[in-house]
Amino acid sequence: MKKYGHFIDGKYVEPSSASWIDSMDPYRGEAWAQIPQGNSTDADLAVKAASRAMTEGPWSKMSPSNRARLMIRLADLVEQNADRLAETEVRDNGKLLAEMRGQVMYHPNWWRYFAGLADKIEGSVVPIDKPEHFTYTRLEPVGVVVAITAWNSPLLFVAWKCAAAIAAGCSVVIKPSEFASVSTLEFAELTREAGFPDGVFNVVTGYGPEIGSALIDHPDVAKVTFTGSDATGARIYAQAARSMKRVSLELGGKSPNIVFDDCNLDAAASGVISGIFAATGQTCIAGSRLLVQNSIKEAFTQRLVELGSIARKGDPMSPETNIGPVTTQQQYRKILDYMEVAKQEGARCVLGGGPATDASLPGGQFVEPTIFTDVTPGMRIAREEVFGPVLSIIGFDDEADAIRIANDTIYGLAAGIWTQDMGRSFRMSAAIKAGTVWVNTYRAVSYMMPFGGMKHSGLGRESGMASIHEYLETKSVWISYDQNVPTNPFVMR
């Protein structure tokens, strides 16, 4: 069993507590690696290293073009190590190797894209209305960034957060989930190999209350970016506000997948299955609320049941597997609890509805892909994020009905619309309150497109050209070339 250290100031170091946390393989149900149990001392070391990199080290003097070269070199290294990194993620979180390899192979695009933006961060000259003044703006790195990532796609979140931050000239301290830290610790070595100066990229691991909280409170941290649940995000937001830190949050969802009776039914059924059963439903963009036009509701439900019933559960490393284990015991129990709540509230279970009992499945963390129908919008199963392969089917009559139901939620991360009516696709896309709307597709992401939520689903955006401004401050500069002394120094100029 490999034992890892924190990655601080360009090297691996043991935790000051001399304590480690077992990293569990959710498929086998056994520990396979150990990560440091960090505390406030480790947090302080990492933040101070990041701060030195920004103020004293070569990073502070490096040109944007040279930063970009390092980022491109890092992208190449990720590609060269993609298989190893993907397998590491599977051991940590139990998601399918096909999905994690795809994510890791796509990961370098963020580094290359933002490398291309690094030397295009430009202020502007302002044609000011005050005579004999030259004024301009500068865009400067916000400072040390703390990035707290979730366990379902660790390296993808590293790319989403850190590529933009580093292109902007910031240094970063990553605190990955204690349930899936190993791939981020392995990735850290690649930043050193790529030539990043010491302190630019740091990784500390451990439990949120012990080290995450210390990172958020640290006076040298300027910005916190977090991916996770809305409840945790709200606590981080409140904590960061006490020291006026910048914050961006990518939080939970209860995304509506809306199927109209004029759609391509085969494509819609495939998209709905992908939206809820892919990644064992452990994704913030899961299309967990299926809104189906009543004219096709029964037939479409039956089609989904047939597709869902043939999903193969098993070893996530196998290309034959469709459904892997739930990543954590805590999440496994939560999913089962929600299934029971749905039954008690009157939802009708037409597929699954409990733990997977196949004796050939080790680890004890598999659940059956589950479909509930006869769901009403007020049921908890339709309002709260389950974060598992549990689909709630709700009928609707027309566009207005679909919009009302879709927007009746505290969340606003994503939505899907399935229709062949072009006018409807535009009307619905404008009416749905969500940060991303997919039409006739689902779960598509790109380094070029902004991603983030409305309402309880978060603040700020990741990816896309505008996201680099999440890590920049605007400074206004006034230079007077007036040779005359002001006649009255006691009034505003």
Automatic annotation (TrEMBL):
Organism, per UniProt? Orrella marina
A single GO molecular function term of this UniProt record: oxidoreductase activity, acting on the aldehyde or oxo group of donors, NAD or NADP as acceptor
List, from the UniProt record, the residues annotated as the active site of this protein.
Answer: 250
Q: Which parts of the chain are coiled coil?
A: none
Q: Where is the Aldehyde dehydrogenase domain?
A: 12-477
Q: What is this protein called?
A: Carnitine dehydratase
**SUPFAM superfamilies cross-referenced by the UniProt entry:** ALDH-like
**InterPro entries tied to this protein:** Ald_DH/histidinol_DH (IPR016161), Ald_DH_C (IPR016163), Ald_DH_CS_CYS (IPR016160), Ald_DH_CS_GLU (IPR029510), Ald_DH_N (IPR016162), Aldehyde_DH_dom (IPR015590)
Which family does the record assign? Answer: Belongs to the aldehyde dehydrogenase family.
Which of UniProt's keywords are assigned here? Answer: Oxidoreductase
Pfam families to which the protein is assigned, alphabetical: Aldedh (PF00171)
